[in-house]
Amino acid sequence: MPPGQGWNQPGQAQHQTPSPATGPQPRQGGQWQPSYGGFGAFGEQKPKRSKKPLLIGAAVVVLLAGGGVGAWLLGAFQGDTLDRAAVQDGVVKILREDFGEGDVKNAQCPEDQPVRTGTTFECTVTVAGQPKKVTVRVLNDQAQYEVGMPR
Predict the structure, then answer these.
(1) Distance between CA 29 and CA 23 in Å, rounded?
(2) Are 96 and 63 in contact (CB under 8 A)?
(3) Which regions in the chain score pLDDT beneath 70?
(4) Rounded to 5 degrees, what are φ and ψ at 72?
(5) Could you give the CA distance from residue 151 to residue 131 in angstroms, rounded to a whole number?
(6) 106 falls within a domain
(7) What is the DSSP string of 97-123?
(8) Which candidate in 23, 91, 117, 151 could, as Cys together with 107 as Cys, close a disulfide (CB 3.0–4.6 Å)?
(9) Residues 6 or more apart from 43 whose CB is under 8 A from it?
(10) Structural domain of residue 90, as residue ranges?
């Protein structure tokens, strides 16, 4: 460099090489030159994404939730239940054989009683022409139960 001329001397133009990461670079005369090569440098736009998969997914979720609620209301998750007819026959048999009641008929027990230890419910039965109630208690998860004395 000739003497007397250093960096940033008045009247001397500076030349800079633009880089992709530095943004717009000044040019001589105070004008701005756009940079090149960065994100969105060429005006590319992303195509609009369809909302159809999102709507289908939401519909599937709603249908599955509705199906689960419907199944729960219908008792699908209730677990094992006692066979109503078998319990009614068992009550009549136990009252005849174990309690010595000769004239026992028409046992009526509630439906859908769970096979769960400690579950209790009442059945109505006709003993010697009189309506009576008996308490039935589930003893274990093997559907074994005991029948109380008619009252």
Answers:
(1) 18
(2) no
(3) 1-45, 75-78
(4) -65, -40
(5) 9
(6) yes
(7) HTS--SSEEEEE--S--B--TT-EEEE
(8) 91
(9) none
(10) 84-147
For residue 139, the tally of other CB atoms under 10 A from its CB is 12
Q: Are 75 and 109 in contact (CB under 8 A)?
A: no
User: According to the model, what pLDDT value does residue 44 have?
Assistant: 62
Residue 73, helix vs strand vs coil: helix
State the pTM of this model. 0.51
Quick one: tokens of 118? Answer: 């400690």
In a domain, 79, yes or no: no
Where are the extended beta strands (E) located within the chain?
A: 25-26, 32-33, 104-108, 120-127, 130-138, 145-147
Contacts of 74 (CB under 8 A, 6+ apart): none
Q: Residue 145: name the closest of 102, 82, 92, 96 by CA.
A: 82
